[in-house]
């Protein structure tokens, strides 16, 4: 659903839940939970792999053991998660607590359907322990609407044997990436696998100091953004040392890397268990993303637990959020490394900050750009992706493609 369609629903949503929200913000509620009465709350999210499902169940079981009068009904929404959630919010049938991706957060916060959480926070819930960029993704005008449950940044994955055979060092700058890619590209292997989409290109696009989104509108047609992205285009079409996954018959960067069709890819934590399970013989390392103009940067993708503002069981709902995003619940959920903990103390306790494969991802959390920027980002993303791919494939000049895409995005936003 495009952003403008969701925004068109805001009035309906607010009208439906406005009466409930009045007088129900903060921790003013009547759940009966404080008096020890039994209560059932619903937690909704999308599905995960079997191992993640078991970890979540373990965390929920531990929560119920601590709070025997609170039962949690876990609901999995497998398809079209946000469309389903928006429909249920409009219809007054949304769960008490649910997952919210940072990318979707600004639009949903603007509707007023989420419960502000600051009023529930006590001194023993250490907010400073969260990686700040991740927490800020769910704040608006100084108000917190969600606490991040996990995240991933991006790191450079490199094939150790290919680097050794080529006699090159692991690059620490983007200029070095382009140079070593020339040595690594041979025998059907490209030096660098690229995902040509805004979610991956965002930090590169802003590396010369210009914003991709400015005053709520697309700004990726700016000359400095185009200049920042041009090397990505040139590496594929001039150097012939990079490719996207589909160019080599793969579905995504992790598969491309596992099949050893790319010596380097830029991927997140999700690639680590995938490579361990699917391509266990590939000897690889990870490192923080190469600097651009001397500056460290990366992307971060994060999801929070949020509370339905219309919930009639707010105190119990907060207890669940407090546990799952607290040290104990977060340690259970992230213990196997399928997701990274948003609390610094938990990352340290589990050793992820020193982990051979994950340390680079954890290190990037403090300076990452979170994949979220206002209610119009979905429209901006769609138009960018449509035209950036055409430039990446050499079908048209980058400046022409992005300027046209920017105009189209801003027309749609204006509508």
From TrEMBL:
Query: Under what name is this protein listed?
Result: ABC transporter substrate-binding protein
Q: Which domain of life is it from?
A: Bacteria
Protein's UniProt keywords contain GTP-binding: no
- InterPro entries found in the cross-reference section: SBP
Tell me which UniProt keywords the record has, alphabetically. Answer: Signal, Transport
Question: Could you confirm whether the keyword Signal appears in this record?
Answer: yes
**Membership in a protein family:** Belongs to the bacterial solute-binding protein 1 family.
Gene3D superfamilies this protein is in? Periplasmic binding protein-like II
| PANTHER family registered for this protein in UniProt | MALTOSE-BINDING PERIPLASMIC PROTEIN, MALTOSE_MALTODEXTRIN-BINDING PERIPLASMIC PROTEIN
**Xref: Pfam families:** SBP_bac_1
